[in-house]
């Protein structure tokens, strides 16, 4: 219990530090959301100059208040669940935007990360067990190539080839075809949404699976030389039991931390993948918020990413104690 309280205190401190940076960093950059929105409105006709001050007060960037006053107003709003109003989608609130888009991101990226992690870890175990074979050598070279690829570049190639050249998938994503299906829990909509998600999911799996494979392979090879693995072999246990119950169980610990961080990052979405495929997740919303100096939208989504990452780290911390008896003994 003492260990849990200590870890919780550290994570809460990390959240507070991240919230503080999340508030101050956008304000150190040139421009502000009120001026950006005022400029956009003025492009469509004459606008009352007093509107600019009203917008600054509304968006919490009123320069007549000292920065520390704005900071405590921001904290107070967070405590009351008020993430502010988006200037990009004015007058929609940030909470509504996140609520509308997060389900797209969660479904796409959670499924993609789970497939990538499961396949990558399993193949990494087999590669380590058959180290030095043609299978291991060929796959290691291929995975090193994929690992070095930049996923925005891969997304562009996949999008151009399968959508423009072959025409197998829609050029404009939007998550589903609004002219054919109605959003809801019906089979037509689910199949259409899955069809629109194939290319983004394929890109994410291909660009991340190599990392899981190589991490698991290298860790597993180190574990195979441990005394308890040698002892298990000497006892005559089956190869499958030695591979999974003795070697893989201990070698997977670093991957558990990486998996937790990856799930935390899922909340933020794969920014470039969602932007390239016009996929309606919150990663795409974050991209639009940054483009338009939308402080509230950017801060709201980043805050969600931070909290999700911290929570997943805490879960990984607890899983360590379940998977590794040495950790349990040390903490007790």
Structural features, described:
- The chain is mainly α.
- Helix content is 75%, strand content 0%.
- It has helices spanning 2-28, 33-42, 50-58, 67-79, 94-129, 134-148, 151-165, 187-224, 227-234, 239-251, 253-266, 271-276, 282-291, 295-323, 325-331.
- Helix 5 crosses helix 8 (187-224).
- The model has no long low-confidence stretch (mean pLDDT 80).
Task: Determine the number of helices (DSSP H or I, runs of at least 4 residues).
Answer: 15
What is the multimeric organization of the chains shown?
Answer: single chain
Strand content: under 5%
Low-pLDDT runs: none
Give the termini distance in whole angstroms. 9 Å
Please tell me how large the radius of gyration is: 24 Å
Task: Write down the secondary-structure element order.
Answer: HHHHHHHHHHHHHHH
Helix content: over 70%
Q: Quick one: biggest sheet? A: none
Mean pLDDT: 80
Please state the structural category.
mainly alpha
Sum up the overall morphology in one term.
Answer: globular
According to DSSP, the number of beta strands is 0
Q: Which key phrases capture this entry?
A:
single chain; 332 residues; mainly alpha
Give the structure's gist in a few sentences.
75% of the residues lie in helices and 0% in strands.
């Amino acid at each position: 219990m003492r260990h849990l309280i200590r870890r919780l205190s550290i994570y809460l401190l990390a959240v507070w530090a991240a919230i503080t940076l999340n508030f101050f960093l956008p304000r150190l950059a040139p421009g502000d959301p009120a001026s950006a929105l005022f400029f956009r409105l003025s492009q469509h006709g004459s606008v009352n100059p007093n509107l600019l001050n009203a917008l600054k007060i509304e968006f919490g960037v009123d320069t007549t208040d000292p920065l520390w006053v704005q900071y405590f107003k921001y904290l107070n709003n967070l405590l009351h669940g008020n993430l502010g109003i988006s200037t990009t989608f004015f007058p929609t609130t940030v909470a509504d935007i996140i609520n509308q888009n997060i389900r797209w991101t969660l479904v796409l990226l959670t499924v993609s990360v789970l497939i990538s992690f499961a396949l990558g870890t399993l193949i990494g175990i087999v590669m380590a067990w058959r180290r030095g074979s043609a299978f291991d050598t060929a796959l290691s070279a291929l995975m090193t190539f994929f690992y070095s690829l930049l996923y925005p570049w891969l997304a562009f190639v996949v999008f151009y080839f399968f959508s423009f050249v072959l025409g197998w998938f829609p050029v404009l994503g939007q998550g589903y075809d609004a002219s054919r299906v109605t959003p809801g829990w019906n089979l037509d909509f689910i199949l259409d949404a899955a069809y629109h998600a194939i290319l983004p999911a394929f890109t994410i799996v291909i660009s991340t699976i190599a990392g899981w494979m190589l991490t698991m392979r290298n860790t597993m090879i180190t574990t195979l030389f441990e005394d308890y693995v040698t002892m298990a072999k000497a006892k005559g246990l089956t190869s499958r039991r030695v591979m999974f119950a003795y070697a893989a169980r201990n070698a997977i610990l670093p991957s558990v931390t990486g998996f937790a961080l990856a799930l935390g990052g899922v909340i933020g979405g794969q920014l470039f993948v969602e932007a390239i495929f016009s996929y309606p997740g919150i990663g795409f919303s974050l991209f639009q918020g940054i483009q338009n100096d939308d402080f509230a939208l950017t801060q709201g989504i980043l805050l969600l990413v931070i909290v999700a990452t911290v929570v997943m780290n805490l879960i990984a911390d607890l899983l360590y104690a379940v998977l590794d008896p040495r950790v349990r003994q040390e903490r007790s």
